[in-house]
């Protein structure tokens, strides 16, 4: 009888202990900054959905370090000032461990000085280089980003043009931060690949006609014209060039453009246009031994199963939030503790982390970790993307 009482007591203690431990598990709290309204909401809203989808799967499989992950999300409204205000909320009110986002280069630069000073690991989903460029752009000790650097995309373009015997290019670049970042690299890297820049024009990414710029650039008779912007402006410019009389230069879009929307807006004018993009844009062409192939195919299955593709068709931006959280998870597991400094140190040592956008290998000098081999040059043919020949 005594043994039975002792056994029952021990079982109750074990059950009680299990309940207490479970109740005491605090979630790892992270922040999410996504442009869910304003001019880049088409990227930001989809990124938030992908981030939530990715975290749900992680939590369904035991979380990270045995703890669930909770994301506190704010809409940056596509406004750098709002992005900074929301970053302060995440740090000073919500006490997050790390931040995923924001969506645009301008917002990334707006928050960077603050997050660096506060020591917050921030994995951005922005296209431009300045957030991790150092020098006049400020330190990036705590700042990381998942989309390929603009400089990497420029190198991919120039490598392709060089292989096609192209040696003269004209540039049409947006007046925003992303466009000017692209212009900087397009000019500085041209000589390395034997390219001569014959003419330059700028474009307001919110405008709806660039016929004048197209005419001026075509008069310089370049072999190719590189258009550096995201959103509808790229398709508008493509149509403007298509409407010019006579022989036309090869049109090249930037790495932020590949997606169904460009094909829809540019229509027949898109035929023959080339652009660098992530492998998600042509998964059917990936080799079976490509380490990204299973990751990309599963991501596409999960994305479409959620029905996100109906409102936000898959495009080159679609996997950025997935990649950011994948790096966060790998960094925390390597650190072994949900502590900011330990996470930061681990992030810049990650090697061979397979994501949708590439295989990430970071260093203290390179807080992106992707090279030109993470991209493919795409060509529009018969209204679809395929690897350029």
Structural class: alpha/beta
Total DSSP E strands: 14
Q: What is the average per-residue confidence, as pLDDT, rounded to a whole number?
A: 93
Can you identify the CATH class of the largest domain?
Alpha Beta
Order of helices and strands: HEHEHEHEEHEHEHEHEHEHHHHEEEE
**Alpha-carbon distance between the termini?**
83 Å
Instruction: Report the sheet-strand fraction.
Output: 15-25%
Task: Kindly give the count of domains.
Answer: 2
The biggest sheet amounts to: 5 strands, parallel
Uncertain stretches: 1-23
The CATH topology of the largest domain: Rossmann fold
Give structural notes.
This protein is α/β, with parallel strands linked by helices. It folds into 2 domains: 28-147 and 293-371, Rossmann fold (3-Layer(aba) Sandwich); 151-284 and 375-387, Response regulator (Rossmann fold, 3-Layer(aba) Sandwich). It has helices spanning 2-24, 41-60, 80-93, 105-118, 150-163, 177-188, 211-219, 232-242, 260-266, 292-305, 308-311, 320-335, 340-347, and strands at residues 28-34, 69-75, 99-100, 122-124, 143-145, 168-174, 196-203, 224-228, 250-253, 274-278, 353-354, 359-360, 375-381, 384-387. Helix 3 packs parallel to helix 4 and helix 8 (232-242) packs parallel to helix 9 (260-266). The longest helix is centred in the first third of the chain and has 23 residues, at 2-24. Mean pLDDT is 93; it is low at 1-23. Belongs to the leucine-binding protein family. Residues 1-22 form the signal peptide.
């Amino acid at each position: 009888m005594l043994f039975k009482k002792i056994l029952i007591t021990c079982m109750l203690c074990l059950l009680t202990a299990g309940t207490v431990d479970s109740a005491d598990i605090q979630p790892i709290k992270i922040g999410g900054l996504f442009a869910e309204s304003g001019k880049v909401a088409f990227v930001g809203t989809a990124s938030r959905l992908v981030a939530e989808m990715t975290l749900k799967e992680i939590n369904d499989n035991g979380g990270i370090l045995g703890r669930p992950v909770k994301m506190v999300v704010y809409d940056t409204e596509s406004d750098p000032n709002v992005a900074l205000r929301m970053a302060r909320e995440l740090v000073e009110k919500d006490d997050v461990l790390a931040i995923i986002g924001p969506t645009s280069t301008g917002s990334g630069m707006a928050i960077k000085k603050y997050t660096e000073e506060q020591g917050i690991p921030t994995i951005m989903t922005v296209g431009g280089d300045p957030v991790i460029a150092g020098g006049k752009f400020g330190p990036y000790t705590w700042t990381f980003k998942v989309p390929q650097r603009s400089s990497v995309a420029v190198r991919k373009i120039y490598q392709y043009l060089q292989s096609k015997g192209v040696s003269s290019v004209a540039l049409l670049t947006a007046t925003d931060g992303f466009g000017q970042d692209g212009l900087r690299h397009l000019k500085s890297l041209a000589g390395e690949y034997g390219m001569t820049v014959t003419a330059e024009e700028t474009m307001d990414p919110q405008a709806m006609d660039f016929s004048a710029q197209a005419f001026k650039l075509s008069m310089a008779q370049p072999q190719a014209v590189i258009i550096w912007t995201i959103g509808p402006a790229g398709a508008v410019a493509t149509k403007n060039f298509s409407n010019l009389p006579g022989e036309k230069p090869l049109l090249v879009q930037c790495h932020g453009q590949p997606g169904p929307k460009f094909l829809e807006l540019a229509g027949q004018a898109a035929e023959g246009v080339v652009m660098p993009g992530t492998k998600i844009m042509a998964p059917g062409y990936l080799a079976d031994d490509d380490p990204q192939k299973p990751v990309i195919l599963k991501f596409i299955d999960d994305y479409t199963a959620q029905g996100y593709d109906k409102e936000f068709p898959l495009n080159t931006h679609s996997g950025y939030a997935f990649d950011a959280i994948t790096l966060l998870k790998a960094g925390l597991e390597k650190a072994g503790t949900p502590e900011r400094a330990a996470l930061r140190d681990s992030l810049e040592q990650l090697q061979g982390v397979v994501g949708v956008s590439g295989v990430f290998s970071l260093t203290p000098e390179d807080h992106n970790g992707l090279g030109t081999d993470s991209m493919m040059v795409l060509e529009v043919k018969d209204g679809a993307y395929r690897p350029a020949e």
